[in-house]
Amino acid sequence: MRLTAVDLHCHRGGRDVFAGVSFTVASGEALTIVGKNGAGKSTLLRTVIGLLRLTRGRLTLDGGDPELTIAEQAHYLGHQDALKPSLSTAENLTFWAGFLGGHRSIDVGGTLEAVGLGALAGLPAGYLSAGQRRRLSIARLVAVKRPIWLLDEPTSALDSAAQQRLAGLMQGHLAGGGMILAATHGPIGLARTEELRLDQTTPSAPVAQDRDEAAQDGP
Amino acid sequence: MTPLSAILVRDMRIAVRVGGGALMGVLFFLLVVTLTPFAIGPDLALLKRIGPAILWLAALLASLLALDRLFTSDHDDGSLDLILMGTAPLELVVAMKGIAHWLTTGLPLVLAAPLIGLFLNLDAPAELALVLTLLVGTPALTFIGLIGAAIAVTLRRGGLLLAVIVLPLTVPVLIFGVGAANAAVIGPVSFGTPFTVLCALTLASLVVGPFAAAAALRQEME
To answer: Within the 97-136 window of chain A, which residues sit less than 8 Å (CB to CB) from chain B?
Structure first.
């Protein structure tokens, strides 16, 4: 399985967020997307799953399920945890497993153990700390098998033990033939990763120049 | 659990938990109808004549109450992103959310209506007719409301806009709902004619509502 992006452009709010981005990720590979704040890391992840529209460029997935879109074969771990505070930890996980995974029954207790939340299954998610909420979101990735993981700063709010646990989960996912795209500022605990720098590919200077010229041409 | 039953169960659970808003609708309904006799005075003939209209107006406003959080809460906590990534068609997901919303806010209104009808001097046949019209008409209110809820999803304080968008669209439902109930209470039109039109309006809204709401949601996620 191979995810190929060719010459991606995204234009939003009157400026190019990124332009001319190309990358390839194959089964068992991880790609980290780095760049300064506002470089378009989150936007790039959201365009991959179609939550934002590409201005130009092509995204193809070879070897996946032809019946499903890329988004339907991907997990997205964004900044928001997508948890309902009034539902318990187990209920939140059961819902996402049922909604994203369909008919397959899942082992809620075992999955919560895998992210270190086994003792908190009955607690409303509203009482969880930021790191615990993050771990509950990660449990979703473990509960439902999808080959592509899109992680937006996955280690934020996690303590060092939880970061190691996440690294273990990611290695397991890669070993099982999955692929990972992670937007990050620091190391995420994977041994070998490709790196995509967004700063270099963003032609911010020419764009500014164009705009100056347009302003001069105007009345 | 299939994706659609998962979302039905989740939305109903959230609605009946603390802060969910399922009971608020019924309480609001009760309050509006209870206040009316105090405002109008103890004129039993008048109350009987305007009773169905008051119950319908109260039901309309009550069903609007919890609607503004229907998609906004999912949008704010990131759930909507993941819902769009599911394999279930968005139209069906929206319809399921509508059904869950009706079961937790619309159906309680229907069940409370006979009790409240007593306050407005309605007799047994009139009560039955009223409950029937509410049972058939409140799903239309919910499913028309879905459209407004989806349009207002990205706006702060979208609740007011929701009312402005939704209330004009509910006018036909209100006319034929009250018309059918009144026909049973005071005549002279037969109950069947307006009631059939009400059924048709509900069936149409069950189809149009989810498609329009899903289109609005897709547009706004851009």
So the answer is: 98-100, 102-103, 105
Full domain range(s) for residue A136: 84-145
Total count of domains within chain B: 1
In this prediction the pTM is 0.87
Average pLDDT over residues A58-71: 86
Residue numbers of the domain that contains B8: 3-220
Domains held by chain A: number:
2
Residue A75 lies in a domain: no
pLDDT at B206: 95
Q: A152 and A211: one domain?
A: yes
pLDDT at residue number A193: 79
A70 touches chain B (CB under 8 A): no
- Distance between CA A60 and CA A81 in Å, rounded? 27
Q: Do A94 and B87 touch (CB under 8 A)?
A: no
At residue B25, what are phi and psi to the nearest 5 degrees? -60, -45
B95 pLDDT tier (thresholds 50, 70, 90): very high
The C-alpha atoms of residue A138 and residue A36 are separated, in whole angstroms, by: 25
In Å, how far from its chain's centre is CA B135? 10
**Predicted confidence (pLDDT) at residue B158 exceeds the cutoff of 80:** no
Q: How far apart are CA A11 and CA A24, in angstroms?
A: 22
Q: A76 vs B9: CB contact, 8 Å cut-off? A: no
pLDDT at A132 over 70: yes
